[in-house]
Design a protein that fits this description.
Largest interface: A-B, 25 and 32 residues
Shape of chain A: globular
CATH class of the largest domain in chain B: Alpha Beta
Radius of gyration of chain A: 21 Å
Order of helices and strands of chain A: HHHHHHHHHHHHH
Number of strands of chain B: 14
Oligomer: heterodimer
Low-confidence stretches of chain A: none
Number of domains of chain B: 2
Number of helices of chain B: 12
CATH topology of the largest domain in chain B: Rossmann fold
Radius of gyration of chain B: 23 Å
Structural class of chain B: alpha/beta
Helix content of chain B: 25-40%
Number of domains of chain A: 1
Number of strands of chain A: 0
Order of helices and strands of chain B: EEEHEEHEHHHEHEHEEHHEHEEHEH
C-alpha cells in the first residue's frame, strides 16, 4: 500500500467528529419523504405517477451536488497543507518519487469521495425502491456522480499542488467550480440567445455551442440519462449517446490534468 | 557505502542558489566533510545556513555547482540524496494526528523498510532516544523537545549515514537542549556524520570537529575546532580573556583597574576586566584586592564561540 495513503487512512480513522457527516446526511431522506408527500398531496401540479420521478431526480441531483461541492473541498489542501505544516521537507527527503507521492495523495482524496458516495447511496437506493425511473438510470447516474466527484477531487488536488497556501488552493478550486458549473452554462445560454435568430438554425453551430458549454457540465450526462429514462423529450435526447461520452471524456481528461498538476506541485523545491 | 570517498565524503562544489525573489542565498560555496566528522554551521540569521542544508539534501536545485556524497551526484535530486542523507529541517514539521509508533512506521514504509530489519532498527532508535514511554501517544501531545527526538528517530530508523540538523535545539528549554545535544553526541559516537547548524553556540563548540562561519551566503571562515581558539588572530578578536571579580566596592575596584591600564566594566557586585595572560590577570586581582576590599569570587569567563563569531563577523564588516 502507498505509504501516504496508509497515513491518510490512519488520520481519517482517528478523526473524532467523523460521525457528524453521516448524521447530517440523514436529513436528506427526510426531505425526500416530505417532497414525496407534498407531491402526492398536490396532485394537480404533479401527477401521482410523476412523484417517483421527482423523488428520483431529487435524490440523484442532491447526491451530485454534494459530491461536486464536498469532494474538491476535501482535496484542495492535501498538498499545500504539507508545505504549510512544514512536513513536506521530511517527506521530500525520501526515496519516494513525486508521482508516487501524488498517487498516495490521490488515493486518499478518492477514498473520501467514495466514502461520501457510500453515505449518499441510501437515499438513491430509497428513490430507486420508490420507482419512477428504470433501474439502469439510477445505476448509471450513481456511477456518473461518483465519477464527477473523483474528477473534481483530482482537479482540486492538482490545484493544491499548484499553490503554496491552502487558502489560495481553496479559492482556485471554488473559482474552477463556479466557472464550470455556472459561468460556462450562463455563457453558453447567452451565446444561444445572441445567435438565436441566425446561425443557431445550423445543427453544427448548435452542437459546437452545446459541446463547448453544456455537455461536459458536471451534471449534463446525468440530465441526459434522467431525461432518457423518464421519456421526457429534450435537446439531449435528440442528440444521442455521444453527449454523455463527450462529458465523460472531458472529465477523464480533467483527471489527467489534475494528476499532472499534483505531480508538478510535488516536484517543486522546498523552501 | 562501498566505493565512497571516505576522506572527502561529502563534497560541495561551488554551489550557488538564488531564490525566485532575487535573493542570492548561497554564493559559490565549496566544502568537504569527512566521514564521521561533525561539522558546525554558524552565522547570523539569513546567512544561508538552512539553504545550504536543503541544497545538500537535494530539496533545492542550485543555479551552479554540484553536491556529491561519495561517488553519487545528488544535486537537486532528493530521492538520490535520501539514500545517504537525513534532514531535520527548521522549522520542524511533524504529522501530529498519529501516534509516535505510526509516525515512525510511516517513514519506514516510505523507505520500504520492513520485517526484521524494521523491528531491529525501530528498537534501536526507540532505545537510543528514550521514546519507549511515548510510542502509543499522539505526536500532538508531545513537547517540542520530544517531537525533535521523534524527528531524529525518523533518521535513525532509516540508518542514513549523514545527518543534517538545522537548528535542532531551537525553541527548546535548557534541559531539553542538553538532552538533545547529548543524543547528537551519541550519534556521532556510533559513526554518523553530522552537519549541524545552531545558534546555541557553546554546545556546538563542544560538539563540532570543524566550524564553518557563514555570512551573506559565503564562508567567512572554516576552521578546525580544537585549534581554532588557540589562534593568535582569534585571541586578538576577543582581545584576551575576561576575568570577573566579585568584591565589596566595585566602583573603587573599577577605578583602580582603569588606573592600571585594564579595560573594565562594572557588573552587579563586581567588575569584569580583560587580561591578555594569567600574569596580567594576577596584577588585576591585586589591584581589586587593594581598592575593592574583600573578594568573594574571582574567575576567568569563558570566551565562547559566540564571541568569536561576533568578532569575526564584525571584523569582516569593518574590512
Amino acid at each position: 500500500m502507498n505509504p501516504l495513503y496508509w497515513l491518510d487512512l490512519r488520520v481519517r480513522v482517528r478523526e473524532r467528529r467523523l460521525w457528524i457527516m453521516p448524521l447530517f446526511f440523514l436529513l436528506i431522506p427526510l426531505l425526500q419523504v416530505v417532497l414525496a408527500m407534498l407531491g402526492a398531496y398536490t396532485t394537480e401540479v404533479i401527477q401521482p405517477g410523476e412523484v417517483g420521478t421527482t423523488v428520483a431526480m431529487f435524490a440523484i441531483f442532491t447526491q451530485a451536488g454534494l459530491l461536486i461541492l464536498l469532494s474538491p473541498l476535501a482535496s484542495a489542501q492535501r498538498i499545500s497543507q504539507e508545505r504549510e505544516q512544514r512536513t513536506y521537507a521530511a517527506l521530500a527527503n525520501s526515496t519516494m518519487t513525486p508521482s508516487a507521492l501524488a498517487r498516495g495523495k490521490l488515493l486518499g482524496a478518492w477514498t473520501f469521495t467514495l466514502w461520501l458516495s457510500a453515505l449518499t447511496l441510501p437515499f438513491v437506493l430509497g428513490a430507486a425502491l420508490w420507482g419512477g425511473l428504470e433501474l439502469w438510470v439510477y445505476l448509471a447516474c450513481f456511477a456518473l456522480n461518483v465519477l464527477v466527484g473523483l474528477t473534481l477531487s483530482t482537479l482540486a488536488l492538482g490545484l493544491s499542488g499548484l499553490f503554496g497556501r491552502s487558502l489560495s488552493a481553496y479559492l482556485a478550486a471554488g473559482a474552477v467550480l463556479f466557472l464550470w458549473c455556472f459561468a460556462f452554462p450562463m455563457f453558453g445560454g447567452l451565446t444561444f440567445g445572441l445567435l438565436s435568430s441566425s446561425v443557431t438554425k445550423s445543427l453544427v453551430v448548435n452542437q459546437v455551442i452545446m459541446g463547448g458549454f453544456f455537455f461536459h457540465h458536471p451534471v449534463a450526462p446525468q440530465i441526459w440519462m434522467v431525461m432518457r429514462g423518464s421519456g421526457v423529450p429534450s435537446v439531449f435526447q435528440d442528440w444521442g449517446g455521444w453527449v454523455p461520452a463527450l462529458g465523460v471524456g472531458v472529465w477523464l481528461l480533467l483527471n489527467l490534468l489534475g494528476y499532472a498538476l499534483a505531480v508538478r506541485g510535488l516536484r517543486r523545491e522546498v523552501y | 557505502m562501498s566505493g565512497a570517498n571516505t576522506v572527502n565524503w561529502v563534497r560541495l562544489e561551488a554551489l550557488s542558489k538564488r531564490y525566485p525573489n532575487g535573493v542570492e542565498a548561497v554564493k559559490e560555496l565549496s566544502l568537504t566533510v569527512k566521514q564521521g566528522e561533525v561539522f558546525g554551521l554558524v552565522g547570523p540569521n539569513g546567512a544561508g545556513k538552512s539553504t545550504l542544508l536543503k541544497l545538500m539534501a537535494g530539496l533545492l536545485r542550485p543555479e551552479r555547482g554540484r553536491v556529491w556524497v561519495g561517488e553519487d551526484d545528488v544535486t537537486g535530486n532528493p530521492q538520490a540524496a535520501a539514500r545517504w542523507i537525513g534532514l531535520m529541517p527548521d522549522p520542524l514539521g511533524v504529522y501530529t494526528d498519529v501516534s509516535c509508533r505510526e509516525y515512525l512506521q510511516f517513514f519506514a514504509r516510505v523507505h520500504r523498510l520492513e520485517g526484521q530489519r524494521l523491528a531491529k532498527q525501530m528498537d534501536q532508535a526507540v532505545e537510543l532516544l528514550g521514546l519507549a514511554p511515548w510510542m502509543e501517544s499522539e505526536v500532538e501531545s508531545l513537547s517540542a523537545g520530544w517531537q525533535r527526538r521523534l524527528a531524529l528517530g525518523r533518521m535513525l530508523l532509516l540508518d542514513v549515514p549523514l545527518l543534517l540538523l538545522d537548528e535542532p535545539a531551537a525553541g527548546l528549554d535548557v534541559r531539553a537542549r542538553a538532552e538533545l545535544l547529548s543524543i547528537v553526541r551519541r550519534l556521532t559516537s556510533i559513526g554518523r556524520t553530522v552537519v549541524i547548524s545552531s545558534h546555541i553556540l557553546p554546545e556546538l563548540e563542544e560538539l563540532a570537529d570543524r566550524f564553518g562561519i557563514m555570512d551573506e551566503g559565503r564562508w567567512v571562515e572554516i576552521a578546525e575546532g580544537k585549534t581554532f581558539f588557540e589562534r593568535a588572530e582569534i585571541r586578538s578578536v576577543l582581545g584576551g580573556h575576561q576575568w570577573r571579580a566579585l568584591c565589596a566596592d566595585p566602583a573603587a575596584a573599577k577605578r583602580a583597574l582603569e588606573a592600571g591600564g585594564f579595560r573594565v566594566v562594572e557588573v552587579p557586585n563586581g567588575v569584569e576586566f580583560t587580561a591578555t595572560n594569567e600574569e596580567a590577570a594576577s596584577r588585576g586581582l591585586a589591584a581589586v584586592l587593594q581598592a575593592g576590599g574583600h573578594v568573594r569570587d574571582f574567575r576567568q569567563m569563558s570566551s565562547g564561540l559566540a564571541d568569536v563569531v561576533l568578532g569575526i563577523l564584525h571584523e569582516g564588516e569593518a574590512q
